[in-house]
Amino acid sequence: MALQAQSSGGFLQRVFHPEEYKWWHAALFGVAVNLPPVLVGALPLIRSGGSDEAFYKSMQQAWYAPPAWAFGPVWAFNNITTLWGNLILLNKPAHTPYRTSLLLVQGASWFLFATFGIVYFGMKSVILAFGWTFADLLLTLLSLWLAARIDRRIVLSLVPLTLWLLLASAVAAYQVLYNRDILFDVGPWL
Prior knowledge:
Blueprint: H1 2-16, H2 23-48, H3 52-58, H4 71-90, H5 99-122, H6 126-147, H7 152-178
Helix pairs in contact: 2-4, 2-5, 4-7, 5-6, 6-7
């Protein structure tokens, strides 16, 4: 019995507190943070037969807004590159300056990513979606600043996300100005 507990404790230790984080740790985390958006994306289909893509297309969009089909591939790429940087960061020694701060900022950024679908597609709020997107941009810029003090590879891993969030923030601001916010029942402002 003690042998079983020790071996299972060893397994849990290797999974949750390994000496070195592996690619599959990043893959499991990636799956976990993508579950809320996938589940929320299914809700409109269940409730009304609509879809996230239909909701996005129903909005008045800026001329520079990406097509709805681009979001999946772009976010997959952003997530893979960001997870690569997170893996590099996690494998730095615990006493590395700025490591803990960057982990906390990245945690907040992943929270915004995981809950974005709830505020935009679930609550149908262009105002909250803009807030989430712009906050994520600010967190990503802070992440770049912190990462520059740790490892250039982490900075490189965040470049695609930064560029996307710059565009997404401009698109989200346009949506706030030119569309009605269903949750708050306000707008459009222009």
